[in-house]
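Email to the structure team, subject: tetratricopeptide repeat family protein model.

Hi all, the expression group asked for a predicted structure before they design truncation constructs. Nothing fancy, just the tokens so they can compare against earlier work. One-line instruction: predict tetratricopeptide repeat family protein, return tokens.
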Amino acid sequence: MKETAQAGRFDAPASSSHRLDRSLAFLALGCAAALSPAAFAAEWASPSQKYQMALEAQSVGEYTRMVALLREAGGADHVPAQEMLGMALLAGPTVYGEAVPTDRCEAGKWMRRAAAQGSELGKTQWAFLHRLRNAPSGEDVCQTQG
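Reply from the structure team: attached below.
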């Protein structure tokens, strides 16, 4: 090893040990991706890709994962994810079993966000949900739960 005069650092050629460490790190990363490719992919996916992964999760009955992916995509202002998540949370166990509890307040949040971005479906969903929440007392239960 020789010392570099300018930086006071040691310049060493890449040793076989260093290459082995890097190879092992890539191997470990590859194994992690192979063991959980969906989780690995979701970390780097765009909102649109997360929405597509949510549809795939739904098709194989992974409803908890579906909701998590929809929340991520919806949080990034992906309108179709917001629309779907609103309906999933409104339907809850009726459609998705115990994996997705009914949550009208959260459903309304996603429907409202979709509507605010110009979604006609979001506007229709929000109008429908608003009628449900205001009946029969006329109070918005999500506002009073506070």
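Residues 46-134 form one domain. The beta strands are 2-3, 10-11. Ping us if the truncation boundaries need rechecking.
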